[in-house]
Structure formats: C-alpha cells, structure tokens
Amino acid sequence: MARVVVDVMPKPEILDPQGQAVANALPRLGFDGVTTVRQGKHFELEVADDVDDATLAKIAETFLANPVIEDWVVRRVDA
Amino acid sequence: MARVVVDVMPKPEILDPQGQAVANALPRLGFDGVTTVRQGKHFELEVADDVDDATLAKIAETFLANPVIEDWVVRRVDA
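YS: structure for the whole thing
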C-alpha cells in the first residue's frame, strides 16, 4: 500500500476569490506581512503497490484537477 | 519573502463525502487499486521574512483550518 499526495492549485492567471478573501482579512485582524494567499485542493490517496505513475498521473488529470484552470503535482510519500 | 504551505485535512474520524465520491467513482471508470481518497485544502502563502513560526501557526489555526474537524500542517518551502 502506497500513499500518494496530489496538490491542485488554480493556475496563476486564474482569479482565486477564496485565497483573496483570506489575504484581505488578515491585515484587518492584526496579521501583517502576508502578501499572497492562494487556495487549492489537497488529496491523499492510498493505492495498491502495483498502481504505476502513469495511472496516477491519469487519475490526477482526469478526476482531481481541471486542466483548463488548474495545475497539479502528484507525489508519493512514505507511509 | 518566504513561501509557506499549509495543508488542511478532515480529521480521520470525520466523514469526507468529496473524497468518498472520488474513491467510489474510480473503479467504475476503470481505475482499480485506489483504496482511499481524502480531500482537503492546500494553501500557498507568501509572507514577509519577519513573520515567525508562531504567527504562521496562529494564522493556520484561526483562518485556514477549523480545529474542531480538521488537522493541518504548516511548512516553509524554498522559494
């Protein structure tokens, strides 16, 4: 059993209203020094050992991310 | 300017319908071997160099995660 993490983020040119809202709220609430906040999705998968990287890439591209507006990174982590 | 990543995940005892939906859909669509999918949030922050770890921990706990139902990890990454 392997653990796989997929991080999905809006592409840089895509607006990110959720991240923007956090970034705007922080100074009002006394936290200065945070210039940018971008919010994306974080998936943790448990997969059988025989699932290869090509399959993982396909799963990420097809089900976890929207390739039109999002970038994503797939990485295996130690269990 | 430092880059900080905060990953927020539902606690293990909390149901995760979004992750469940992905996990259930995969075998139907021809991808076997994925046993668990959990979905959380991934934040990328750019912060000034004088923002210390205690402040980052406070920001994550207060604004990015809901401590009642979520776990979170704060880490600095190389720019």
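YS: worth flagging: The helical segments of chain A are 17-28, 53-64.
IM: good catch. Also The two ends of chain A are 8 Å apart (CA to CA).
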